[in-house]
Every structure is written in structure tokens, then in C-alpha cells.
Specification:
17% of the residues lie in helices and 13% in strands. It contains three helices and five strands; from the N terminus they run E-H-E-E-E-H-E-H. The chain starts with a strand and ends in a 15-residue tail after the last helix. The model has no long low-confidence stretch (mean pLDDT 96).
């Protein structure tokens, strides 16, 4: 099973996880990152690197964020691949501790 980027990443988009990924399976949108489920090798290297705790193994995704499983798969087909460290989202400090950010999802590329 693949790992999944969930809601805490929205409007934060830290890329610490991207740097440690051995297969470069992260994809970047304007406001969040996603993991391509067919490219992820389930190594889990990204999990401890995420400063907001946004990455879960697919079977461990909290029920309230189940829709992120499909979202990761869908957006990984559209957004560009990312493999280098970048600055976090410009509003990350404002949104880092905000709950219920699903309505802030933006499907635009970066």
C-alpha cells in the first residue's frame, strides 16, 4: 500500500518529505503535495520528515481524511513531479494549525 498526503499539508506544503523519497513519487500542486500511489514503494521515509504529520500509510489514513486517498491518485496524474526542497507555502504559518482545510484544496498546479 502507498503512503498518502492528507489535510495537514494543505496550505503548508513543506517539502522535507520530498528530499528523502528514494523514488521521487511526490507531485506538487499550488497548495499541497500528493504521492503517486503506483510509484510509492512504501518505504515510509517521508513520514517522520513531515513537520505537520500529514503523511499516512493508506490503511492508516484517518477516516475523516479518506477522500485524500483518491485525491492523491487523481492529482498525481495532473501535477508536476517534485524532487527538490522548496520553500513552504507562503501562508504556512497561518494555516499550519488550522483544522478542516478541505475547502481550501486547489487543483491548480504550482
Amino acid at each position: 500500500m502507498a503512503y498518502v498526503v492528507t489535510e495537514p499539508c494543505v496550505k503548508c506544503k513543506f517539502t522535507d518529505c520530498v528530499v528523502v523519497c528514494p523514488v521521487e513519487c511526490f507531485y506538487e500542486g499550488k497548495d499541497t503535495l500528493v504521492i503517486h500511489p503506483d510509484e510509492c514503494i512504501d518505504c515510509g521515509a517521508c513520514v517522520p520528515e513531515c513537520p505537520v504529520g500529514a503523511i499516512f500509510e493508506e490503511s492508516e489514513v484517518p477516516e475523516k481524511w479518506d477522500h485524500y486517498i483518491d485525491y492523491n491518485e487523481k492529482m498525481a496524474q495532473i501535477w508536476p513531479n517534485i524532487f527538490d526542497q522548496q520553500d513552504p507555502h507562503p501562508e504556512c504559518e497561518k494555516y499550519q494549525d488550522v483544522d478542516d482545510k478541505s475547502d481550501l484544496l486547489n487543483e491548480d498546479p504550482p
